[in-house]
Structure of Alpha-1,4 glucan phosphorylase:
Amino acid sequence: MHQADLAIYAAERRGIHDARRHDPGVVEESLQPARNRQLPAIFLRKGADMDVRNGMGLRPLGTSAAEFEQDLLSNLYYRRGTTVESASTQDAYETLALTVRDRLAERRVRTAAAQYAANPRWVYYLSAEYLLGKQLEQNMLYSGTDRIARIALRQLGLDPDEVTALDLEPGLGNGGLGRLAACLLDAMATLDIPAVGYGIRYDFGIFKQDFQDGRQIERPDDWAFQGNPWEFPAPDDQQTVFFYGHTEKDAAGRTLWIPGEVVFAEPSHMLVPGHGTDTVNIVRLWRARGSHSSFDLSRFSAGQYAEAVDEAVHAENISKVLYPDDSTESGRELRLKQQYFLVSSSLRDIIRRFRLRNSDWTDFPKKTVIQLNDTHPTLAIPELMRLLVDEEGLSWDLAWAITKQTFAYTCHTLLPEALETWPVHMFERLLPRHIEIVYAINEIFLTEVRNRFPADLDRVRRMSIIQEEPERRVRMANLAVVGTQAVNGVAELHSRLLADITLRDFAELWPEKFHNVTNGISPRRFVKMANPALSDLITEGLGGDAWITDLDRLAGLEPLAEDASFRLRWREVKQANKVRLGLGDPASLTDVMIKRFHEYKRQQLKLLHIITQYHRIKQNPGQTFVPRTVLFAGKAAPAYHAAKHIIRLINAVAATIDADPAVSPYLKVVFPANYNVTLSSLIIPAADLSEQISLAGKEASGTGNMKLALNGALTVGTLDGANIEIRDRVGADNFFLFGLDTPAALELRNGGTYSPRAYYEQDGELRRALDAILDGKFAGVGREVADSLLGWDEYLTLADYRTYVDAQDDVDAAWQDTESWTRRSILNTARSGFFSADRTVRDYASEIWHVTPVKVTR
Ligand SMILES: *Cc1c(COP(=O)(O)O)cnc(C)c1O
């Protein structure tokens, strides 16, 4: 914004502020784009139980293939402007998407009406990431149009597989955290909980991974280049977001923030349908736009094209890319800007929605619970304080009471050093008013700490929201705990460690604030859709498909584990899924490790086992071995060099094995590129063995472990994250346990005597494996990996090596008893119903959110 415009803007803001002092009800009209949208009168008149389409005089959408075909033709003609004869495949895809979407849009309208009429307590889920997965297949399933859509397409001479292949995955997240957000939204809709997810509509999602000479290379993911038919733009709900500038006091002593940059946040939403219900919630994603004056026409006319759009480009950079990982250093300020952008626009939208049916601020926490998915949206706490105190004129104390009651915080971290912090100087520059508010919150909070623990200065220093040494930084987790009514970890072990170690001081101060809500996954996405053949078999075995929304019913499969013909069919399904995946011999044991590359997850441990097995096969020609296909998939953060070395070494080992005819009949390593939700849905149903081998005490929960167990894979794993709860449920006999537990790992690491070299020297097989790498046996690749393991081995890989290899020998032995393995596979599925995201959401709803469903009726 030009200096002159900013000055006018500031004057305007001062004027509004003045007016508001006399009339706190004044809406910030001049800050808002023109809004002439009213709720349809029908919402107000009739409430929940009416057919909005009929009420509006519209023809109801049909449920037959013939009617679907008619609607396809009509959308092709009126919305794509073409005909079947001249339609491209892209035209056909977009038309199909719109026709499916129309069915859900009808439910969406009824949902909005029912929720509006109920004026319920809402759940607002704030997350910097959503890994939603492909939308077409899901939306066909949820709208019940899967079958008729295919028939209709064929009727029109179109190949359904060719058309549906154009559906893309919006990769708006990095991994587990973003996928959890998507699974929770799915479960909330399925359970009829009134909810909105808020996020950022990144132009570029998580990078596309490719391999060149075995090295990871990253390509941009321009996911919406062709447009995104699933998205409803809502420019009328545009919001204004401020950055930089300074604060000043008005005559009455109230604070006013005069921004130095103004950016518009333009929302669009995607539909989040529930399964087996008419509820369709939304996820609202914000995109940054330059303000109206950010295009400089005079410069453009003078031929300065780049300079003319400089400011707009600068503003729009905010939603340009998903940050590839929270651990990278680059672009720090832009990331903080993203966080505030998400929080500020979402809160304004939440308040707009609150005002539709409510007028008293004290009702705000009764009608609103805002769940913070990790610390990325924590700025929402000082932002709500700013809105309530500065803009709405509430007293500090009332605003603080409202704020604390409104928020809840999910912590996904364990390592104290991985908790998010921001330099105070950056905070001050970007968000001058928020730093004042954070200081004020901190002062009140630390007074409480001093009163409770007099003379414990060290505790006060630890708990302060501001870290003083070695650099002044804002501790986002401390702010998140102080400003919320509930804090939860994501698995039992994780929640315990949070309260005992990571956030111990806070748990001592407010024990009642700390909860556990064990993660879960969507049975729709990861069983029904990913594994249709197994789903059909389960449905047949249980005599119905109610398990899809009531996953505890899987327990009914237990007796069938004893039924030889059921076991045979179970194996046939697994076999067919391996054929469908098309990687490796379907008769071999399919051993999968699919997840982000991180040293704590220990792909390097799996690799040492592979090299050991390679040596055993080479050393014993003529002996037979259990044939295995080891499947890796996952991305490394672009700047995470240690993880990238591991990727490169895996590819080199895979090539060496492939080229060795003595080994390749028994061992194959495959590493398909670009792990994402789509690829996971192909791999998981084919897995026999699930690798969950992180160092105990490092993985908060894991959710890949749940997906695999539910699809009948047996786990080889440590006592980490939700592995513990999986083992408790499926039974120790059906889980291959190995490795140090958390106390032993902590003791070994912190004892100061851990020597990876001692393990190397004492274990011949381990030495051989590491020597092979050091001697350059794998195309000379991977010495960095071996050096790092022998030098420091942060994640105690070598300490767990022997028990891991022994556990793998147990796996081989167990695999040879086919009937027994199948029995255990069935029991893994039958006993994992607990890991449904529906259960997770029920836990949140009863323990933290205190919300009740709103049923959508016809
Ligand atoms: C489930 C999932 C994850 C999380 O996997 P973990 O094994 O729990 O780390 C990451 N990425 C994708 C694409 C997923 O579907």
